[in-house]
Amino acid sequence: MSSGAGQEARSESLNAAVKKLETGIELFHADRIAEARSEFEAVIAAGAEGRLTSRAGDYLAACDRAEAAKDGKGDDAFLEAVMARNDGELESALKICTAGSRTRDGRFVYLASCIRALQGEAEPALDSLAKAVELDPTNRVRAFHDADFASLNEDERFLSLVHDHSDGG
Prior knowledge:
Blueprint (H helix, E strand, L loop, with lengths): L2 H27 L3 H13 L4 H21 L5 H11 L3 H8 L8 H13 L3 H14 L2 H8 L10 H7 L7
């Protein structure tokens, strides 16, 4: 395949991903959540450009929240996980955080990273924290100030995650 043909194929793939994202957004706003979810999942499965997959992931999390609200389960699971963590029931809290679509919700992923850090599981904690920051960049600041990560304060990967170097500084 020539470089021109490769560029054309990438351009077509990008255009298809953009179209799926746009369709998903329209469906989401029309309250057709299941159909919207399919479009967003297709964008991610296609391995589209980072910004597109990130946006699709944001909308998937919004789909999760919309479906949970319809089920009357809104923030109950998150509050339940926080209470279990606060009561020292770390395994129970972690189980809640890692169930189903919650692995795409920045709140649950962040809480799971806190729990793993408290359990002394540095690598899983850092993996979860990286995903939590990707899902919601404000988790970077939360982690910097969170005592749950005290055991990781000297870890280079942790320091890299909590200090934003995207501005060149």
